[in-house]
Amino acid sequence: MRLDDLVRISLRQVIRHRRRYIGVVLAIAVGVAGFISIITMGQDVKRNFNEDLAFIGGVTIIRNVLELRPQLPLNRFHPDTVQAIQRIPGVYVASLVGLTRTKGEWQGQVEEYSVVAVDDNFWKMRGLQALTGALFDKKQVEERQRLAVLGTRLAQSLFGTDKVEGRTLELGRDIYKIIGVVGGLRDINLDKSVFVPLTTAMDRFGRQLAVDRLYVRCLTWDDVPSVAAAIPGVVQAHQSAQNLLVEVSWENLEHVKRVAFWVEFFIYLAFAATLILGGMGIWNIMMAAVRTRTREIGLKKAMGAEDRDILAQFLTEALCLSCAAALVGVALGRVLVELLSIWIGMRPPEELFFTCLAFSLIFAVLLGVGAGLYPSLQAARMEVVSATRYE
Amino acid sequence: MEPKPEPSPSPLIRVADMTKIYHNGAGPIEVLRQVDLEIYPGEMVAVMGPSGSGKSTLLYILGLLQAPTSGSYFWEDTDVLTLDRSQQAEFRRRRLGFVFQACDLLENSTVYENLEFPLIYEGVDKKERPPRIREALERVNLGHRLYHSSNLLSGGERQRVAVARALVNRPQLILADEPTGQLDRRHGHLIMEHFEEIIAGGDTSVVVVTHDPEIAARCTRVCPMEDGVLRGLRQ
Questions:
Q1: CA distance B45 to B208
Q2: Which one of A142, A301, B71, B221 is CB 3.0 to 4.6 Å from B18, fit for a cystine?
Q3: DSSP string of A316-335?
Q4: Chain segment A264-278, per-residue pLDDT in tens
Q5: CA–CA gap between residue B20 and residue B28 (Å, rounded)
Q6: How far apart (Å, rounded) are the C-alpha atoms in residues A113 and B107?
């Protein structure tokens, strides 16, 4: 039998009996759509979770500290070290932080402030947003502007409100313009701090400022071990790393990974179950088709069809079913991916979707052949006489 | 009707000493006993006998749908019992046509699709199919039913379509198992008229299995069969 005839006949058969097949097709389609959306969006969803540090407990942040030790000279992170760390595969963002305390006059009284000197990456690294006003950006950091962002508790204690944009604050002997209040700080000490540009603080506070902390946030929790392992080497390549301490919340990281693994596992299991049931559905429906079309098989053999023609026809029908289901699944998957992209605000690489599409079609072929082979063999081996006499 | 052509002296098929024994729980059942049969080109032979006499079994063996227990079966000079499954299928699609009692058409298909299958299995080019299908349908006066659904045809029309399907591959032999069994008298005779027209060409022979003497009387030769015994050699 010619291939075009075979495909035409099989498609015609499937279309004419579509009501019989619709349940199986939908079951497989849902499974395929689920797999596509998980695989395509999985990485982006992880990154999105990553942004919600409260959810995962900041497990993707690696804290690097240059410890002050009596026998070692005072050490600071060099700018080229920070840039090199930023280039490590799996690093999302690196932020250099300096801490100091300073006094300032406020309404006739001297107050002591905890000053956190940060670069513009700090907000991204911590996933912080402005509660009111704005957070200073790269340009303002580079221009060493005397700007301040207050933690919510500090703003409340000083001004009794969050709306402090435009006001000023005296730190040391300098006046800083407050441009906003940062929200989402879970650390009480940080929430009572004043944030100033790192460059400005280095100028104003000099050696009083300890620029000894470098926070590195990884793309996903899967990247944390490799990035943590790479940091000492990278630091050593640019400066002394004798007093370097790399801290990772391994326990929390393992906990988050374990939770994520089980969530992912059960999602995969659910979709795998759907697909297995779909495969069994094809097997079952093809067996039923062989039974109900016994006379047709006998008739076709009497017309001169060979065993392989009958085998090919039933197998192609099973393939048409599984491929049709996969195509519906791919379309559904695409819609899901689009919706998820809008929801989490990230777009997966297009080639990943096409890879999934190719895998889905390969899977559909395997499913069709796997589930359709036995019923097709049954049909092909049928004896003509008993088939033509079948009631 | 034109006078029937004189059959050629050399038989198209020769069956000799053929037996068929079925085995079931009660023991062996001999369905065919030393059957001898010759069919000549252009003749219509009726195998006539009561139910259970082995007529259909003989027809299935002639159609290579079933193997005999013993005996010989030659098609011209070919010993067809030595052919393997695939060669037998090829033999069926090139030389044989079947008409079954139950007006067996493929359900939910058009008349065209029913007639296309034998051509598909034979590997006939797509362009050649429509004229051959039309030609076969014209021979049973159903040219106007080409794209009708087989489910919507009357019993008589369905059987005529089955005859057309048996003809579409231009076979040498048509095997008809009680072709008029489910038809009324008028339609039964119409089918026989079609068979008469088919053999009139001299290229195609027909074997009709029937228990109806009236149908058998329209054949060029009648071979009575009883308890598996048939004498089918031409006198």
A1: 6
A2: B71
A3: HHHHHHHHHHHHHHHHHHHH
A4: 787 778 778 877 888
A5: 10
A6: 89
Q: How far apart are CA A91 and CA A231, in angstroms?
A: 10
Q: Name the minimum distance, in Å, from the CA of B113 to any CA of chain A.
A: 9
CATH number at residue B168: 3.40.50.300
What letter represents residue A237's amino acid? A
Per the CB < 8 A criterion, the answer to whether A231 and A85 are in contact is yes
Cβ-Cβ contacts under 8 Å for A162 (sequence gap 6 or more): A131, A132, A152, A155, A156, A181
Query: Which chain B residues touch A14 with a CB distance below 8 Å?
Result: none
pLDDT in tens, B162-209: 989 988 988 999 999 888 877 778 878 888 888 888 888 888 899 999
Residue A43 in contact with residue A348, Cβ under 8 Å? Answer: yes
Residues of A in contact with B93 (CB under 8 A): 303-305
- The span from the CA of A243 to the CA of B3, in Å, is 118
The ranges assigned to domains in chain A are 3-51+256-388, 60-248
Q: Which chain A positions have a beta carbon within 8 Å of B165's beta carbon? A: 303
* Cβ-contact A205, A102 below 8 angstroms: yes
Best interface-test mutation with A: which of B85, B91, B93 has the largest number of A CBs within 10 A?
A: B93
Whether B175 maps to a domain, the answer reads: yes
Contact B191, B159 (CB under 8 A): yes
Query: What is the ipTM score, two decimals?
Result: 0.87
Q: At A174, which helix (H) or strand (E)?
A: strand A174-183
Question: Given an 8 Å threshold on Cβ–Cβ distance, is B90 in contact with A295?
Answer: no
- Tens digits of per-residue pLDDT, A35-56? 888 777 776 666 666 555 544 5
Beta carbons of B215 and B180 less than 8 angstroms apart: yes
Q: How far apart are CA B73 and CA B34, in angstroms?
A: 12
**Owning domain of residue B211:** 13-232
How many Å apart are CA A75 and CA A244, to the nearest integer? 9
The answer to the question of residue B169 being in a domain is yes
**Residue A74 CB coordination number (10 Å):** 11
The 3-class secondary structure across A274-309, one letter per residue, is: HHHHHHHHHHHHHHHHHHHCHHHHHHHHHCCCCHHH
CA distance A138 to B205: 97
Phi-psi sector, B171: left (phi>0), alpha (psi -120 to 50), beta: beta
Per DSSP, B7 falls in state P
**A86 within 8 A of A94, measured Cβ to Cβ:** yes
Which tokens belong to A23? Answer: 């349940």
Domain count of chain B?
1
Instruction: Tell me the whole-structure pTM to 2 decimals.
Output: 0.68
